[in-house]
Amino acid sequence: MAHSGGKMKELRFKKHKFPKGKKHKSKKPSKHSHSSPSPHRHSHLDEGWEPPPQSFKPTSLHSEDTQDPFYDHWDDDSTAQADYWQSEYASTSYNQPTPSAPQQTYDEWADGISAAMWEKTYGAQKRRREEAEAERERGRKKAREQVEREAREYEERKRKVEGKKLEVLRGEWAQAWVKLKSATPNGTLRKKDVSLPFVEKHSKSESITASEVEKFLLNGVGPEAKKKVLKEAMLLYHPDKFAIHKPKFKASEWDSITTLVSEIAGVLNTINAAIR
């Protein structure tokens, strides 16, 4: 600091001490060196700049000496490439976000709640009623099947009884014809001695029907045997052939006998025409 009327005080600076054996050398430019301007620190970003070749060092993955044989196989085998890309696609697809489910509306949500409450309150009762009704229906079905089975069994027993009865009546009918053929022609036979091909007896006003004659002669008979049975019956009741038995019957009843025989012959012709 300068004092008025006197000289400025000289400032002294502390000198740096260096370790023994080492002297501070000031860097002075060499007389023979030619300095060149250093490149800009971002000069590698300049267009067209490339790093020097020695900056590349072969790695264990890409060096020619240590290259994985998989890459050679990759180049030669198209299947390996397809498998690789397929696995990549699968893993990528698997990681895709799942689309969110559509949101329910309030009415849909309310309907779902209402249905759940109804099921909880009335569903069990409804199922019990349905099960009970199904059980009753099974019982009714079982009862119907029982009735139908009993009806079939009854009809079967009835057919067997009627079959046995027909066998007896057919036997009696055949025996009556044997007696008529062997009877003495003395005019003692009556109309009641004519053997008739039906079960029930008829009054004078009743007509003989084809169904009762067919039932008597053909019930339970096979198709081929029916023709034979009909042919034999038609010969027995043919009016001209039956006339040979006239001397055996009482003369006063012959006219009514021939009328009866002619009626039976007509019914047999009708049956024969129907089964041809």
UniProtKB/TrEMBL annotation:
Primary site of residence: nucleus
Localization per Swiss-Prot or TrEMBL: Nucleus
Keywords: ANK repeat, Nucleus, Phosphoprotein, Repeat
CC per GO annotation: nucleus
Bias kind Basic and acidic residues: ranges: 62-73, 128-153
GO process annotations (BP): negative regulation of canonical NF-kappaB signal transduction
Domain of life: Eukaryota
Basic residues biased stretches: 12-43
Ranges in coiled-coil conformation: none
Listed InterPro entries: NFKBIL1 (IPR038753)
Region (Disordered): 1-77, 122-153
Protein name in UniProt: J domain-containing protein
